[in-house]
Design a protein that fits this description.
two-stranded antiparallel ribbon; 28% strand; transferase; 35% helix; 189 residues; alpha/beta
Length: 189
């Protein structure tokens, strides 16, 4: 992702710096896919940080800016929640009207029994957000839940793409895949 706006380019540079210094861990890790890795990107270390959340919101707004008529953003709880909130707040600061939603792993077994929480997304174009992508499984599960309530999924947008085939999985499901930061940006490729 490149930006013509110098402020956007600076927000992206700062975000990459924060992620590299505070959210990339080296060692032996087992990923969601079961595969082994020598590094782990733990975006929650920074997505819930007051210095970094606004940067995430700015960078993700720039990433999704070209997707027309989007009413709401969100994804599977827990990883997508701070990303969606950052987009909601930074969007409001720019005069944009993005709502946020949360997709539960399973529908509630009490109350209204909902799996998708937040403003009604039926008949609306939405973007599924993800903090980091590994297998594409979480966005696919969110897409399924959103389609079940009548939302139109316009794209999946991730903050950090681990280059582990999530793009291919999402695109094979017929959904465009957008990534703000790649492994090369973090010096991990």
């Amino acid at each position: 992702m490149t930006s013509r706006n110098p402020q956007s380019a600076e927000a992206r540079r700062q975000l990459i710096e924060f992620i590299s210094s505070e959210a990339v861990f080296h060692g032996d890790f087992t990923l969601t896919s079961g595969k082994k890795a020598t590094y782990y990107v733990d975006l929650r270390k920074v997505s819930l940080d007051h210095r970094v959340a606004p940067l995430i919101g700015q960078v993700m707004l720039d990433l999704i800016a070209e997707v027309p008529e989007v009413a709401a953003v969100g994804g599977m709880t827990m990883g997508a929640d701070p990303i969606a909130t950052a987009v909601l707040h930074q969007g409001a600061a720019r005069g944009l009207a993005y709502d946020a939603f949360v997709v539960r792993k399973e529908p509630k077994d009490h109350g209204r029994g909902k799996q998708v929480e937040g403003p009604d997304v039926a008949g609306k174009r939405v973007i599924v957000l993800e903090d980091t992508s590994t297998t594409g499984g979480s966005p696919l599960k969110a897409i399924e839940a959103l389609r079940a309530v009548g939302a139109e999924v316009a794209a999946v947008a991730v903050v950090v793409d681990r280059d582990t085939c999530a793009r291919e999985v999402i695109e094979a499901a017929g959904v465009p895949y957008l990534a703000a930061i790649g492994l090369k940006d973090l010096g991990l490729s």
